[in-house]
Every structure is written in structure tokens, then in C-alpha cells.
Amino acid sequence: MAHPEEVFRVLLRVETHPGKQDDFERTWLEIGNAVTGDPANLGQWLLRSTDEDHVYYIISDWTDEAGFRTFEHSAEHVTHRERLHPYRSGGSMATMRIVRHLPSARAAA
């Protein structure tokens, strides 16, 4: 496993069409292995905003930026996006590197 400070993180903000949230969640779960099956992927999370019912955040961690960029331009990723596209009305992407990681006291014990 990559050291936390070496992880490349991607944060997606996804806006869904009103009433399409259940379809979006189901499809995301059905095709999730398109991401998690990639050797450079360390896992991903789907989060739903508590402020905006139609907004989701997807966090995915990668061994490095090169591994993510290879996946980003792959046929698997294009298929993944095409399956989710009917439920999306907009969104954005931010990429980042973890600078420091402080585990919780409970996790350190």
C-alpha cells in the first residue's frame, strides 16, 4: 500500500438530475469495479451532500498521478462515464496530493 503522503487523490463533484439520485447510486455501484479493478486504484467512496440532495462527491485514491491519468484516458473509464452520463447534470474535478496525514488517536492505539 502506498504511504499516505504518496497517495494521489481525486475529488469529483457530481450534480444529478432531480429524481435521478437512486439511478445514479445504483449505476455507480454496479460499475464501481471499473475503477477499483484498476491496479493503480486504492479505493473510492461515494458521498451524498447533506446540503444539496442532488449533489454527490466521489473520492478515489491512486498510487500515483501517472496511474490515475492512464486510467482517465482508458476505454474502461470512457464506458464508466457513459453509463453515468444520463443521470448527471454537471460537476467538477479536483486532483491533489496528500501533504500530511494525522491518524486518529483511536486508529493509532
From TrEMBL:
InterPro entries recorded: ABM_dom, Dimeric_a/b-barrel
GO terms assigned for molecular function: monooxygenase activity
Keywords: Monooxygenase, Oxidoreductase
Matches recorded under SUPFAM superfamilies: Dimeric alpha+beta barrel
Superkingdom of source: Bacteria
Domain ABM: 8-96
Name of the protein in question: Heme-degrading monooxygenase HmoA
